[in-house]
Amino acid sequence: SLNGTASYKNDILTLTQFSAKSGDKTLQGTAVYKDDTATLNQFTATMGQDTFAGNAVYKNNVVTINPLRANVRGTVLAGQVQANLANKVPYVVAALAAKTLDVNAMTGKPKSKPSNGGGGGGGSSSGGGKKASAGWSNEKIDFSPLRTINGKVNLNAEQLIYDQVKLSPVTLQATLEGGKLNATLSKFQIYGGSGNAAIAVDASGKTPAQRVKLSLANFDAFPFLRDAADFERLEGRGTVSMDLSGH
Questions:
Q1: Which residue from 165, 169, 191, 203 puts its CA 20 to 30 A from 232's CA?
Q2: Per mean pLDDT, which range of 13-17, 49-53, 155-159, 225-229 is the poorest?
């Protein structure tokens, strides 16, 4: 459905205060088409439970949204996005900021149960003392979406939450080209310490390859291990250095 007021004068098409709806998607704003340029002013859009607002311009196969404000499953993002649609694989450049980046909410993944204070070692026990399954999946990871888009993303957040672990502040820089993803988290603070992380995924060939490099220094071991692994038997300062690769 589409509702609004349209006018055409001096080769300018204007759609004033329109509202459009298709299924669970809605769009509202004022649109102007002039000199092969389409402008969408002060728009608001919804896609299911997610909302977006800002100003958009489309010209020469390039879409620019600046400013952009989005609420994705409770996580508020602000910044700007530009997408070049001239080629078969679009190229997207985004610069975004958030107060709290809740990965659990954005991906729809529930948090693991918090520690029960019993000093467990990361798994519950069943009859006979055998640990219950930790819930790992044997399903293959589908990396094919990495070949459907190219681009660069810069994301800053005052705090990042993944499962029960909290990092603050964080700066994420990521590039994606031809199915090859490189992402870094630089100089973040973690439980009184500091850390750096880098992730690389090469999905350009038949068999994807991955590499993860992580270094954490001088963190408070007790709250970190409690939140990361429900382990409450160590106290002190910790250091972790990890370099893993696989395919």
A1: 169
A2: 225-229
| pLDDT-derived band at 4, boundaries 50, 70, 90 | very high
**Averaged over 52-64, what is the pLDDT?**
97
- Relative to beta strand 150-162, strand 91-102 is parallel
Residue count of the chain: 247
> What sign has the CA pseudo-torsion 66, 20, 4, 36?
positive
Alpha carbon 146 to its chain's center: 14
For strands 37-47 and 150-162, give the pairing: unpaired
Q: How far apart are CA 234 and CA 39, in angstroms?
A: 58
Cβ atoms 152, 94 nearer than 8 A: yes
For the chain, counts of helices (H) and of strands (E) = 2, 15
Give the pLDDT confidence score for residue 117 in this predicted structure. 43
Q: Is the pTM of this model over 0.85?
A: no
DSSP string, 153-205: EEEEEEEEEETTEEEBSEEEEEEEETTEEEEEEEEEEETTEEEEEEEEEE-SS
Neighbours of 190 (CB within 10 A): 24
Burial (CB count <10 Å: 0-12, 13-18, 19+), residue 132: exposed
Secondary structure (3-state) at 229? helix
Q: Do residues 68 and 82 lie in contact, with contact meaning Cβ atoms separated by under 8 Å? A: no
Report pLDDT digits (tens) over 119-137: 444 444 444 444 445 567 7
Q: Residue 170 to residues 186, 195, 211: CA-CA distances in angstroms?
A: 7, 10, 20
